[in-house]
Amino acid sequence: MRRCSRCRRRPKRRWPRAERSGEYAGLRRTPSAEARRPGMKRREFWLLIAPSLLIMFGFLAVPVYRTIVWSFQQVTYGSPGTFVGFDNYTSALTDPRFLEAVWFTVLLTAAAVVVILLFGYVLANMINRLKRARPVVLGIMLIAYVIPHVVGATAFSWLFDTNFGGVANLIVSQLTGEEVLWFTDVWPNRLVILLNVVWSMLPFAMLMILAGLQGVPEESLEAAQIDGAGPLSLHWHVILPTIRGVMVFVSLVLVMDILRVMDNLIPLSPQATSIGNESIMLYVFHIAFTEGNPQLGLGSAINVLTIILILLALWPFIRGILKEARNG
């Protein structure tokens, strides 16, 4: 039987394959821009980070390595060191002066961190309510943070020095009727040092907490107020949990900086060695550079012990940050 023309199968039209088409073939053979992008980003990343790595290696890794090596040697200026094993560590850990410096530094750090966090949070909330006056207030407060510590501590000491007016000393003397020896008595001098550390580090904490407060969602605050939360409950249950990461970061930086405090004590505590208000770094400076026979090996051993102390003090904060990042 012959099929009609309508029933006949039409031949399938053969379309050119992508390989045979010049336009498609070019796209198939040439790597796409998206495929090349990761390699370019990786090269750019290493080119940008290489100078920082070299600087960190030169100014951090090499000095730490030399410090560890010298901590096992008896080192004098101009001559190679002599290996003495753990004698420097034994001398440091059995020296009552070093243990007293550790106790003073840890006590100062704990008190200063608590006071700075408390007042920094209060000031940040007050400044967060300002509008036009906020830049002016921030600029005035940041002066104490940006000036060198020695300069700030020297100017701060004039508040308690009768030779330079001593406004704070005059007020305290009028209220108590007694003359306070701020630079020679143990606890008055510790109070002066604590106030100076708080004064110099408070602007940093306040600025960081202020940045965290500006990231608190307005919806959360409004919902808490609708539910009947008072001011204390609002801060404790809403604001503080929201800026917990910022508070941990500020605490970490404060602990690192205050454990290494030294230059503040030079104008504020001229009798630090005799009255027991010597920090760890000031103790290292004295025994390694200024007192009699410089002991670079002993000073290096104390620096290594200080690094271990700082890592132990920072471990709770670092663990909290890692746990928060893992949960996030």
TrEMBL record:
It holds the Pfam family BPD_transp_1. It comes from the Bacteria. The chain crosses the membrane at residues 45-65, 101-124, 136-160, 191-213, 234-259, 298-318. Residues 102-317 form the ABC transmembrane type-1 domain. The keyword Amino-acid biosynthesis does not apply. Gene3D superfamilies: MetI-like. Its main location: membrane. Keywords: Cell membrane, Membrane, Transmembrane, Transmembrane helix, Transport. One of its GO terms (biological process) is transmembrane transport. It is a multi-pass membrane protein. This is ABC transmembrane type-1 domain-containing protein. It comes from Enemella evansiae.
